[in-house]
Design goal:
The complex is a heterodimer. Chain A is mainly α. Chain A folds into five domains: about 110 residues, no CATH class; about 120 residues, 2-Layer Sandwich (Herpes Virus-1); about 35 residues, no CATH class; about 70 residues, no CATH class; about 140 residues, Four Helix Bundle (Hemerythrin (Met), subunit A). In chain A, about 55% of the residues lie in helices and about 5% in strands. Chain A is built from 18 helices and 13 strands. Chain A has a three-stranded antiparallel beta sheet with strand order 1-7-6. In chain A, β12 and β13 form a beta hairpin. By secondary structure, chain B is of the alpha+beta class. Helix content of chain B is about 25%, strand content about 15%. Chain B has three helices and four strands; from the N terminus they run αββββαα. Chain B has a four-stranded antiparallel beta sheet. The longest helix of chain B is centred in the first third of the chain and has 16 residues. The model of chain B has no long low-confidence stretch (mean pLDDT about 90). Classes of the chains: A mainly alpha, B alpha+beta. Chain A: Keywords: Metal-binding, Repeat, Transferase, Ubl conjugation pathway, Zinc, Zinc-finger. Chain A: InterPro entries: Ariadne, ARIH1-like_UBL, E3_UB_ligase_RBR, IBR_dom, TRIAD_supradom, Znf_C3HC4_RING-type, Znf_RING, Znf_RING/FYVE/PHD. Chain A: It catalyses: [E2 ubiquitin-conjugating enzyme]-S-ubiquitinyl-L-cysteine + [acceptor protein]-L-lysine = [E2 ubiquitin-conjugating enzyme]-L-cysteine + [acceptor protein]-N(6)-ubiquitinyl-L-lysine.
Amino acid sequence: MSSDGENDDFFFEDEYDDASDQGEMMEDIDSTSEPDVYDALSPALEEAPQRKPYDVTWKVKTLQEIIDMQNKEITKIQSVLEVPASSAAILLRHYVWNSEKLQEQFWNDPAFALNEAGLSPPSSPSTRTIPLPQSPSRRSNRSIRSGPSSPIRRTRSVVTSGPFECPICCMEFDQQAINKHTYSMGCGHRFCRDCWTEYLSGKIKSEGESAKIQCMESGCGRIVREEVIDELVEKDISKRYHNLLNAAFVADSPNLRWCPHPNCEFIIECSQAPSRMLNQIVPTVGCKCGHDLCFGCGYAASHRPVLCKIVKLWEKKCADDSETSNWLQANTKECTKCQSTIEKNGGCNHMTCKKCKWEFCWVCMGPWTEHGTAWYQCNRFDEKSGIDARDNQAKSRASLERYLHYFNRWANHELSAKLDAEFYQKTEKKMEQMQNSGNLSWIEVQFAKQAVDAVIKARTTLKWSYCMAFYLKRNNMTELFEDNQRDLERAVENLGYLLEQNISDTESISKLRQDITNQAAYVQKRHDILMDDTLKGYLERRWEFTVDI
Amino acid sequence: MAGLAPKRLMKELTEIQSKGTPEGIVLLSADDMKEWVFLISVLGEETIYKGETFALRMRFGNRYPIEVPEVTFLATEQYQPPLHPHVYSNGHICASILGTEWSPVLNAVAICITMQSMLASNKKKERPEGNDRYVRTAPSNPKLTRWHYDDDTV
């Protein structure tokens, strides 16, 4: 610890032995420096064989590596600022792990930086160095500096001789029991250990708090340190606390993201997809759990070639009831008398409401009695109010039809993707059949599985391409996009058809095998063309959308 | 820690009975260790609430004072919640001390004092923005509402 007299003023340590955790930190230096060397040589850096300008590089990290990353930062700050490890951690968390900003603020005004981060100097006498009761000189010295921060009430933390009463539960503790059963941080606010435990457990368990748990005293911003929490709460709660700290670290780091797949505990590190880049790249990455995800938005699969923002809009649109109301608006009218919703699915314009028996004209919505004998034609059709009403309906219908066009295609591929497992199973059966009847070896029938892989991959891309097309402005570029889309769609359909073929005939197996292999290669090629062209299009700013991106 | 609340509340009650409450604050009922009602009035000539008295109800859970009590102004035939930009017409109060700023060292009287000073510093008798919408949809327990504290002036 620094023996510098000036700095000493700012550190009002909590009742905790710092020597031991410094020892731990020394060990940590060794263990954290190791992976750095290791990483450069290890195959952890996942890079596509030929990296395209729209691809990103990333690393898959384990939880331990994430913990090591934090410890490394903490150790660095600890030695640069000459503060204890736990203070360094609190400072870093407060400055969202931005160590440059932290150092700048700290050297600018150390007291301010410490205070901001919740390492405030005591607002009442420190109890660390002086055994209870405190010496009067120390007390007066401290209290000059610190005005009460809460206007309402001060805790009776100035312990005079005699028993100590916990201001929360009102239990009394005599002098001998104070050290064993009560605890105060550097801020000097003393409470019994049971109350601390109850308070901290509640904060962690029910409120999910971690890095920002403060002293129980009203208005005291002192942050409770890790070691203190570990000592005061049950093991399982302490475990949850550390999980929350790690989760907060990942959430605070723009370069990190949890793998969103169930039960996967890996973390992806990627520095090439900051949010400002997300209007020109789609940073699909693969986790070690075997699944893809989007680093940009956390979508639990690849949504290439569609931008994150468009995906969000699309999902919202699909989930939104507004589309239902759009349909209602386009396909139904209300009875002008009882307001029942009516869908007209045939017949003439003379409507009789089933509910209230009101007779009206479907075209002009006026009462039928005014129509005389013009049974099938509304001669009031040209009146302005009628035209306006019908215009609105037509627009609404056109917009709905457009949406449904893209949505149906999107949903169709989505549904197919859900039947993946079945598709694989069916194919596997066929592969067995081919091995048995066609005298083909195991390795020779793998072409079928590869073809299914190609179909599934292409369908995912096609699915998203319909979402993309929905938001594209109509222009020549969009036509080219839809040409590519159509070619891929056809290729996939053909391949799907071939895979459905019966293979009872031994003669035809070799031909079918040839056809499927060729078609699968073609699908792969069409897929790559669509993907490559679309993703390059972002970088070249070729795509124009009907929404802001 | 099941017995935390009763002991603490008993202590608070004893203190109120022996030392009394600050001026303008009266303990109306404390029949058990679950629900207390205080009467609050604002002192002085300056206040816009001159001559008015409000009833503040507190419900204490088992984890009090670690956990903040449920605090509302009564809205009954006899008592009406004060017209205040942080008090809804159903008696719910938007105050940080009843949410994120709660500290276990605070107590029932401290809450009363805060409410009293919140009323005293107010200059305009009006309901919060969106009062009707909030009151229509609000849960009966205000602690279930996610408050957003943005105004420290009154």
